[in-house]
Amino acid sequence: MDSTVTATPLRTIADPADLLQAAIASFNLAADWVGIRATREESVYRSQRDGKPESNRRSLAQGAMVEVLVDGQIGYAATNNFTVAGLRQAAQQAFQQAKAAAPGKIHAFQPDVRPTVLGVYQSPVEKPLKTLTTGHAHELLSRICQGLKVSDQIVQASASITAKEVDTWLASSSGTQVHQRFSFFSPSFGATAQDGAIVQTRSNNGRGHSYQAGWEFFDLGDELWALEQRTGEQAIELLTAAECPEMSTTLVLAPDQMMLQIHESIGHPLELDRILGDERNYAGGSFVKPADFGSLQYGSEQLNVTFDPTVEQEFASYAFDDTGVVAERQYLIREGMLQRGLGSHESQARLGVPGVACARATSWDRPPIDRMANINVEPGDRSFGQIIGSIEDGVYMEANRSWSIDDQRFKFQFGCEYGRRIRDGQLAETVRNPNYRATTPQFWGSLAQVGDRNTWQMFGTPFCGKGEPNQIIRVGHGAPVCAFNQIEVFGGAA
Questions:
Q1: pTM above 0.90, yes or no
Q2: Statement: residue 323 has pLDDT above 60
């Protein structure tokens, strides 16, 4: 009976698993399978510009998505009425949607498309975000802004903190019970320098420093303050730097730029829903074909890429995806050969190719779709000194500034914040507005040197978008320093 469960807001329920199971037991539906994913997300955003508070936002989003499988079709309905009655109404809507989809079905799913699992996951956190007070946050941000102002030529210094705590619960008619608790932390800062008509910005790679952690990030101490001072100094340095030359040469990318490179030219083209054509009207398709898995030489033999949601503190780590599939480390590309795609059980069933545990939803009111998670280039055996020392002439680039790639994820052009010429095995003069362009197979096929574990760093982005209706989700990328032969580079000179 509905009266046995009170209409308590989700935020006051320590563990709603019993409520979810009670709701499922009350559904009187002729369904093959029923599942509920409940989500509570609390977020905080603090920002300063030139040492003055600019934004203070706090938000709470909570609700549940009900999935119903009927005659091979899945229906969805979301609700923020977190009661047995509210969940039952959503289940009825999802049931009717699934039935209505049957005449136009493109594939009939079996109940095992949603596995039965039990488990928990929690982000590693030393200092919970709730212990970072508003006053302390702005004290830290003010100090960062001050440290960025290394010269009167710094015309703007900005810093921000984005923090989220997210709980998700999964329950199903087949006995699934999963609880995952995430803590996400994204600090960001940057400085803009100006000398007449010349304007240059240097940042800590936007919000690329995004991790699963608490505010222990600020415990980096001297390392953090040295980083923000160096950021300001490099913004000034770029004002007098020459434009990056236009030529074909050896290109060396730092891990923070490898983040963008992996994301756009490996992550997105390997999403199975793109390959199926589901994303064609919005996010585009892919140059990769179903027959390419197991046969396409995606890059040189130096290229090894993993899907790995198990890396501690990486931004998109988890134990289960949003359909309950157990997350495991898998090779996407091994010694340059394409192995598998980024696709859920649903996409794998439709396409008949191997995928991974990557069905993910941005919030409680969106269904899970194929999304990359942690996509990492595995380290090689070359030190940074060995890579640079082996290059007679080349360009080294850090931190993405701009990107453009076609809707098949084939032809691209990326720009970076900071560059250095490489001459006779040494980092030489700074260059500004460094850019490079290539096609995806050409670029990864030119990979010649891969840095060792000491050069490997992980980053993350909170802003990966796809889907209709749109979903913005977090992604992690780790990579070493990498060198590519005969890549076209150019600057911003007219």
A1: yes
A2: yes
